[in-house]
Amino acid sequence: MSLSADAALQVAQVLTEALPYIQRFTGKTIVVKFGGNAMVDPLLHESFARDIVLMKLVGMNPVVVHGGGPQIGSLLERLNIRSEFVDGMRVTDSQTMDVVEMVLGGRVNKEIVASIHRSGGKAIGVTGKDGQLIRARRLTIERRGPELEAPEIIDIGHVGEVRQVDTEMLNVILDSNFIPVIAPIGCDDEGQSYNINADLVAGKLAQVMQAEKLMLLTNVAGLMDGDGKVLTGLSTAEVDALIADGTVHGGMLPKISCALEAVKSGVASAHIVDGRVPHAVLLEIFTDQGMGTKITSRGT
User: Which of 78, 185, 194, 252 is the most exposed place for a label (fewest CB within 10 A)?
Assistant: First the structure.
């Protein structure tokens, strides 16, 4: 059955609206952090894979970094290993780190690779340990308080932060027309493995690769003001002000801080995208309205 005139016009408008964005971003690197509901909802998972494949087919260079907290928690529960969190970060002893590597570097990573293959793309799954992609160091947490004479240092085990990024392996993958899918695990100079926040890994990769965009999928519509309205077209100065006045707080603060640091370090734009919406990545890249909060050095 053929399209009606109105439906055909709507399809044509969508395609023509996308054209200038395709032209602008051809050959550009776009780092996408995949997490939240989109990882556990099968329909959202598949729509994300199709978005990434389409980006590659029209000439962009998508780089996927994924999380996997719920999947880690589920397996730990099945193994009767108790989960403990400090400031939102999972305390990771050696036994827990084994599970983290198994889930992130194995099951979750390969599920994303398989989804991309089902959508007609070609992907290679790696961890930050492969090719010395991510050199890590142990993350230390300090707690301060009026009752403490000195800051309290809290050991959360094999939780790390990015010390150095070597993109040689990624460049080989991209030059070979594959899509890299990266699990956020790094190691130090002694070979110790560390679990690293996926947002932080995506942000650092975007900085080092001087990506055109950093996109962070989350479970909210974006950064909101006090009235619940999504804020977008923000400059780095405006975001600094929103952090200072407390508009950015709680779980959104580390995500916004990651996006802010990336833009200040040369990434053209950072986006907080609602991963609960099917094809949110494409809608943010290829439409005038977008789907979330966009941060640039000057605001647009």
Answer: 78
